[in-house]
Hints:
Elements: H1 2-13, E1 26-29, E2 34-36, E3 50-55, E4 62-68, E5 71-72, E6 85-87, E7 99-101, E8 110-117, E9 122-133, E10 135-139, E11 152-154, E12 156-160, E13 169-174, E14 178-184, E15 187-188, E16 201-203, E17 215-217, E18 226-234, E19 237-245, H2 252-280, H3 286-309, H4 316-335, H5 345-373, H6 382-404, H7 408-427, H8 434-459, H9 466-493, H10 501-526, H11 534-566, H12 572-588, H13 599-631, H14 639-676
Parallel strand pairs: 1-9
Antiparallel strand pairs: 2-7, 3-4, 3-8, 4-5, 6-7, 8-9, 10-12, 11-17, 13-14, 13-18, 14-15, 16-17, 18-19
Helix pairs in contact: 2-3, 2-13, 3-4, 3-13, 4-5, 4-14, 5-6, 5-7, 5-12, 6-7, 7-8, 7-9, 7-12, 8-9, 8-10, 8-11, 9-10, 11-12, 11-14, 12-14, 13-14
Amino acid sequence: MDEFFFLLLLAAGLKALQIEGPSGPLVVQLxxxxxxxxxxxxxxxxxxxxxxxxxxxxxxxxxxxxFQQNEIRSDLQSPAFRGRVNFFPDxxxxxxxxxxxxxxRTEDAGVYSCKVxxxxxxxxxxxxxxxxxxxxVIGAHHPAVASVGEEVILNCSVxxxxxxxxxxxxxxxxxxxxxxxxxxxxxxxxEASSDRYQGRxxxxxxxxxxxxxxxxxxxxxxxxxxxxxxxxHAADLSAQTTVLIQxxxxxxxxxxxxxxxxxxxxxAFGLGIPVSILLWKEATTRxxxxxxxxxxxxxxxxxxxxxxxxxxxxxxxxxxxxxxVIFARPLILMKTAPYLxxxxxxxxxxxxxxxxxxxxxxxxxxxxxxxxxxxxxxxxGLFESSTMxxxxxxxxxxxxxxxxxxxxxxSFLCLVLCNIDLLIMSLHSESTESPAMVTATSSFVVGMVLxxxxxxxxxxxxxxxxxxxxxxxxxxxxxxxxxxxxxxxVGIYLGNFVNTWKFQFTAGIYIILWVALVxxxxxxxxxxxDRFCAKWRGLGYMCCAVLISISILANGLLYVYYIKDNMxxxxxxxxxxxxxxxxxxxxGSLFVHPRKIPKIPHFILYMFGASGLSIVTSLTLATxxxxxxxxxxxxxxxxxxxxxxxxxxxxxxxxxxxxxxxWMRKKDRIKRNFEDGEEAEPQAAAEGTELETxxxxxxxx
Length: 701
């Protein structure tokens, strides 16, 4: 009796084997994967353990998979499940007997039983696959082949139990993430396509109700080489397929571009050798001058045509900006040429005065045309763009006219205002600091006006006529208008009228400073006794020159700060390259051709500009075209990121040489002024010798 009671207590202390499964039927996707749960809460010893998975999905029961004798017996599987079903081996000892079923088929629907046997007990549970949803995207099995300029069809069909009009979206993208075409909410949204595929990609509308989302790609380009992904989404289901366009050969147009690149580099290098010899010998015959001009114009003409042809393949901003830089380059080459003074006198005069302003304006209008094109995309309004266009056009005309009549300071200030206009326009839709940007840049403009006025009319004793007052007052007025517009913007668009007084106060300060300077200078010119002696005028002149240089540098750093800090949707590196060049060119309008520059640096610089820049440009375009044909994507940065820094370097070195020339010719005169401390009458302006005019006039012998 005691032994029987002990056995009852022992049996009561043992837990029965209890296998658990899912709480309800499973819904799976055709072609997808699923885990069929089967587990116990307590670990089970592997010795004597046997797990059987069976299915009644067919007319007779099939063995799905078996675990016994501490191993998985895949050899006992039914052929229908062989290679598609697996246990989780490292989880079996912990009581997890679930299986992983891959590549779901229609015939997999049904009830699955999980039976677990141990030496002491056995238990089972069932799992039902109730519905198998069809959601499969099928593409082409072979790569598509097309020649450049032709049309190609990329196959993609959606096989699903879900009606087509209930699909959330179907997208075609070019690897990695360039949107080619979008079907969303039962509508094709062509406007959502990337710029490079606008007007070139379309669905077969009549085939969409049948699930056919094949893509017709017209006017195939080299950049289309590579992978295209067709992806469909509906509720929590998604599927995709990949279609490949194989590498294509070059079209006749692209072959023409390569030929032009080869011709340009050959001309630049071939003419560079004899031209360098003739320049070193300072030859100036008519035949030699013709060779000089051929070197300056022909390679750049070839590259300009090449970039115009590249417009079908390249990005809008790189094509327009690079073409404008190449088109304007001969102006700078002639302006900086050692042989300039041997050309016809009238041509020499126009190049000296208008070379830098025209060069800057051509590039500026190209950049503006790209920005203006964005108004359709909502980044900038048509009214605002038109206002900016009128402003830049007026300032450009002012810069050219003032340079034509030797008002170089006013020409420089007009170009600076154009740059500020472009910067505000480019960052208008992205910057939250537009008011602060307008205040900072307008302060720079007004500060430059004050410094130039002091340098020219106080320390150089140049006449301060009504014309000078009117022109410089116009510049100050533009700066104040910028501040007023900013005040209106903050008050109306941002709904913040509290802080608008800051802009009005700043504009008032500008006006007070300018009026005070005008009164002081006019009084000084009327009363000769108030004039400074030569010693103090020399010191004041140099201080103004240093402050002007510092201001230009500080303004450039300000541009960099606002572009890097605020530019998000655009490529900041590309825009930095453009704005750096546009910031460097205007100071060149303060100079004309110098009288004396060291021969060797001048010779090296000009040959770099005449031959080196053309070779860099041609190699960049040819390399981009060839690599693009192999990868189908953009392999180099935007080309103006490569080309424009070399252009900027050329102009910076030229400005350094002119500053060197100015300093070498002025240091002796300044030294004499300090040593003698005698009054000297201002020297008449000699064209092309310095920023504006010399300090003093040397008495005639």
